[in-house]
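S.,

Sequence below, as promised.
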Amino acid sequence: MSDYSPTAQDVKALRERTGAGMMDCKKALVESGGDVDQAIEILRKKQGKRIEDRGERVASEGTIQTYIHSNAKVGVLVEVNCETDFVARNDDFIAFARDIALHIAAANPQFVSEDQVDPAAKERETKVFEEQAADKPENIRPKIVEGQLRKWFEEVVLLSQKHVNEDKYEGKTIKQIQNEVAAKTGENVSIRRFARFAVGS
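The prediction came back faster than expected:
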């Protein structure tokens, strides 16, 4: 038995690639000592054809959904991708895309994911947080800045935001909801892009 203990991030990443349950992914990672490819093989042996490596598969199908707020002053277009036309026409997949459009209208994110954040904007925010932490002990400043940056990502990055409909989604982030749809459909699911329009802005 390996001493290796996978991080929540490692488990999530494997779940995204295979669609297997969280506990199964954790056990497979422990058994493989953190070797992802070996973990996928372990899951395949245990769960058969239900497990497939989605990592290399391209999400080139999908849907474009819209949301227009009741006052007709805010509107959103969102493109959500999957791998097959079959899933693109699936009711759950379309409902997910519509819920994302509604969320974007309300939460006004600036970017889809963290890697799309403008480096200049990130640097600007980091400097502000560093200045704010200047009076704190030097050894804890980086942690404070990191925490503030994480909060900022939750404000501006779509995948890091909690869905505005908390009753329905129980405080889950858009990324978590996207992963659940991917696991349910057995395909790569990704929010590719969005446009939010507000009258007068």
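The chain has a mean pLDDT of 87.

Coffee later?
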